[in-house]
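idk why but the lab printer keeps eating my pages so im just putting this in chat instead. protein + pyridoxal-5'-phosphate:
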Amino acid sequence: MSLTFPIYLDHNATTPMDPRVLEAMMPYFCEKFGNASSRNHAFGWAAEDAVSTARGQVASLIGADAKEIIWTSGSTESNNLAIKGVAEMYKEKGKHIITAVHEHKAVIDPCKRLAKEGYDITWLEPDHTGIITADQVREAVREDTILVTIMWANNEIGTLNEIHEIGKICKEKSILFHTDATQAVGKIPVSVQDAGVDLLSASAHKMYGPKGVGCLYVRRRRPRVRLTPIIDGGGHERGMRSGTLNVTGIVGFGAAAALCQQEMDKDSARLEQLRDRLEKSILSQLDGAAINGTPEKRLPQTSNISFAWVEGESLMMAIKEIAVSSGSACTSASLEPSYVLKSMGVGDELAHSSLRFGLGRITTEEEIDYTIEKVVAGVNKLRELSPLYEMVQEGVDLSTVQWAEH
Ligand SMILES: *Cc1c(COP(=O)(O)O)cnc(C)c1O
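predcted complex ->
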């Protein structure tokens, strides 16, 4: 098989839509265009039927009941609705929320806003593995804690937090538990029942569905979770999220969920093998290359690697026919090193020199082999040009060097 360029290895930023998803969506643009809330004619019924099928498909993927799925525009909105909605609804009970410093910005920023409004936020910090443990949560819980929000899988390093154990603690203490599972849903088994999750955010475009549609799972029994809506209007989605439903997008999300459920085992086994081959080959051919985050507890298709004595942006230029990201896609416009890596104790130098490889359903073995070759050659070339690397080769310990002030 021949390669086509550029090669896409940034599936944690977004995934291409699966052509089978497009096929499912097509009738809902022009022919079956009804408003799912039109109760009086066949156009509305057809739309409502399609939405209902999709609700079942998404619910099934995460072990929920169809009635517990609230459609949104994506995980950013789902996170905002979960965090701000719970904070407002339960503010008489308490104003303490627990989260972590290396969450996605779509969790961090709503929490920061609540902090400005008088809520008290505990920011847990991971160790070098990147994992938030149940013990950390247990120690942070207080009488006035109303919500714990900890992501299932980290978008930059792919590590998995102790979700099931955290869920158990939250149940014991009767505290609501929200998880941003955007990177986990569709890639690894996720069950809101097994994990004791009360609220969960997911997004179609991270799992081969369309952009602009997502959902918030909101538990209905034991306990029945209540939320103050952010968007008021016609009272759609049990009053939690008003607005005419994006029927086409929702159909696509449903189809994408069904495909993920069907193909998860096959996809993840294949991608894990390719990911491991990428890492093993790179690490065996380059010194000063290291995997960020624990190699054990993480997503099967994510790899984050630091390359000492090389600058990440230059390396991306050197391998420009391969689409990857350095640091986090959301913050890489600034040249700030990744806050996720920094929170794990990765130094500025190494954080600057890191690349994230996100493999996906379309990734082939040939693409991975090409990537290995290009990365190794790119790093070697940059190091040849680097006076720092020359000093290292000569045995100079860079940490002891006195640099001139500037
Ligand atoms: C992509 C992503 C989001 C944002 O989702 P959108 O649907 O693009 O708003 C939130 N959290 C995580 C972990 C993500 O990876």
